[in-house]
Write a structure and sequence with these properties.
Helix content: over 70%
Distance between the termini: 59 Å
Order of helices and strands: HHHHHHHHHHHHHHHHHHHHHH
Number of strands: 0
Radius of gyration: 30 Å
Number of domains: 2
Structural class: mainly alpha
Low-confidence stretches: 162-170
Oligomer: single chain
Strand content: under 5%
């Protein structure tokens, strides 16, 4: 039998079309249900059964357990889910992903859905060219669904005809009669294939095709399914590589959950296989029954594993915490949230940016505290240099964070997103720029103090008291900004407080300007001291102006 390079390319092209269709359908479904999925996951309770149900529902909707687990890792990273909650959701995701196998075995092999795929794509054009973002995404779901089954049809037709050329299977038969050795070998093959393809649904479809063509037996197919369940955990672990400790623990718990399941199923492999054969009520050597049996094996494995492991969430949590201990020293200047990379859709990715901006604002507040400490210290304070260096480090980190957040937001903006999301991204870009302006003012305060110290000037106790009065107002101003950022600017009380404090800052600045002139005239402090004093007051006033601009200009819709 001739199976040349063109045939190989056609087989790879069919696989590519299947993967592209699945990816397109999954991403479009996430866009359709983005806000709702986000709300479901973000409002998780500590009820483990509800967590499993959530994982099942979300994965059933988006048809990708990898996407769900990456989402969960990101939500843990953002502090919206605890580690225990994330483990229960991941368990549910494993059950939800079995639906794809049933779609393929019940529909893909029953009749040629490719016959209606082209008309369905034609019908989807009515939605795709709509100006409504939701309808456009529904159209993309139809196209993705159609391409998925067109790819499946090509896959079935592109595999070599083994029945007419049984000698092609000779090399496989050498490895299928080694008892548990064969099971372990094909388990490894399933794992590696899933890591390469990066989709357990795709490798499940490939396994079903191999089974339908007679390439492998039901037992070997079951072994590959076990391997695919291990291989699919790689995606979440990759997503968690640069994340915070708890996010990496969540990714590891997914791997351990599936490995534990594979171990106990291997121990009772043949009795479990016999149970599945009894459940489908037929001979698994027959084509249709073998496909149903493999889909049933996939489903029962994940349901059984969840029913066992759901009562072991706490021990599993303890194990992953021991394997990945808490870092002794977290770098406060490092990115905390967007380092995990983008999620499949903009709506879900935006939470990374939101949490990073929230963290950025909190860090800028700490920068102000450092600048304040430096200001109120004397020029000969042995820690003065250290304070100044700390503020300089904050400034450097602030510039880098602004660029990183902006780049991430532009990456989201470059994906197909709704008009509402584009407007929110513009607001976040403006917010990020203005938070950096606040950090610049903190650095300017520090530089003014460094100049004062170089001239060996100390502020009088009266000057420090007046500075403290201004610093207290600015501190309240930044705190109000933090509340606005945390609430996505839905906290109207905090927003109004920003405008109130702005008026107080302006009034105090004017009063201190008059006070400073009076004190210099009375020679209560030197002219040079008065200049440095007013430089700091002016920077505080500019800092408050930047905060007020944010409250006036940023308008965000509540997204949680």
């Amino acid at each position: 039998m001739n199976f040349g390079i063109i045939d190989v390319l056609q087989l790879l092209g069919a696989l590519g079309l299947f993967l592209f269709g699945m990816s397109m359908m999954s991403e479009a479904l996430q866009k359709v249900a983005g806000n709702k999925m986000r709300s479901i996951l973000a409002s998780m309770t500590k009820n483990r059964l509800l967590g499993v149900l959530t994982g099942v529902i979300v994965t059933s909707i988006i048809q990708s357990s990898s996407a769900t687990t990456v989402m969960v890792v990101s939500f843990v990273n953002a502090g919206l889910l605890t580690l225990a909650e994330s483990i229960s959701v991941i368990m549910g995701a494993n059950i939800g992903t079995t639906i794809t196998a049933w779609l393929v075995s019940l529909i893909g092999f029953k009749f040629s859905i490719a016959n209606i795929a082209i008309p369905l794509i034609g019908f989807s054009l009515l939605f795709i060219f709509s100006k409504n973002d939701r309808r456009k995404s529904i159209g993309e779901v139809m196209v993705g669904f159609s391409l998925l089954f067109i790819g499946l049809e090509y896959l079935k037709n592109s595999v070599p005809d083994i029945k007419s050329n049984p000698e092609m299977l000779q090399f496989l038969t050498d490895y299928t009669n080694m008892g548990y050795g064969s099971i372990l070998l094909f388990l490894l093959i399933g794992s590696v294939l899933t890591v390469i393809v990066q989709s357990s649904s795709a490798t499940m479809a490939i396994t079903l095709i191999m089974l339908s063509q007679g390439w492998i037996s039901f037992e070997i197919g079951a072994a590959m399914v076990l391997g695919e369940n291990i291989g699919t955990t790689i995606t979440a672990n990759i997503a968690g590589l640069t994340a915070k400790t708890n996010a990496r623990r969540a990714a590891l718990s997914h791997t351990m959950f599936n490995i534990c399941g594979v171990i106990w199923v291997l121990i009772i492999f043949y009795p479990f296989i016999n149970l599945i054969e009894w459940m489908v009520g037929g001979n698994t050597t027959e084509n249709a029954n073998s496909l149903y049996a493999l889909s049933m094996f996939h489903t029962m494995f994940n349901i059984s594993n969840t029913l066992i492991m759901i009562w072991l969430i706490k021990p599993l949590e303890k194990i992953v915490c021991n394997i990945i201990p808490e870092k002794r020293e977290e770098n406060e200047f490092a990115l905390q949230f967007i380092s995990t990379g983008m999620l499949p859709t903009g709506e879900l990715s935006l939470i990374e940016a939101e949490k990073e901006i929230e963290h950025y604002t909190e860090r800028t507040h700490r920068m102000f505290d450092e600048a304040r400490t430096l200001t109120l210290a004397t020029y000969n304070d042995k820690n003065a240099q250290k304070y100044a260096e700390r503020v300089a480090n904050y400034e450097s980190a602030s510039d880098q964070t602004e660029n990183a957040i902006a780049d991430y937001l532009y990456d989201i903006d470059a994906t197909p997103i709704s008009t509402d999301l584009k407007n929110r991204i513009r607001n976040y870009l403006y917010l990020t720029t203005e938070v950096e302006s606040v950090a610049d003012r903190c650095f300017n305060i520090s530089r003014s103090v460094v100049r004062r110290n170089s001239e060996k000037i100390n502020f009088t106790e009266a000057q420090n008291n007046k500075l403290n009065e201004m610093f207290n107002l600015v501190d309240k101003h930044i705190s109000a900004l933090e509340l606005c950022v945390k609430s996505n600017f839905t906290d109207e009380t905090a927003r109004k407080e920003i405008f109130t404090i702005e008026e107080q800052v302006n009034e105090l600045r004017y009063a201190l300007k008059v006070y400073n002139i009076d004190q210099v005239n009375k020679e209560a402090h030197s002219y040079s001291s008065g200049i440095h004093f007013m430089d700091i007051i002016e920077e505080c006033e500019s800092l408050s102006d930047a905060i007020t601009k944010i409250a006036r200009e940023v308008k965000l819709h509540q997204s949680h």
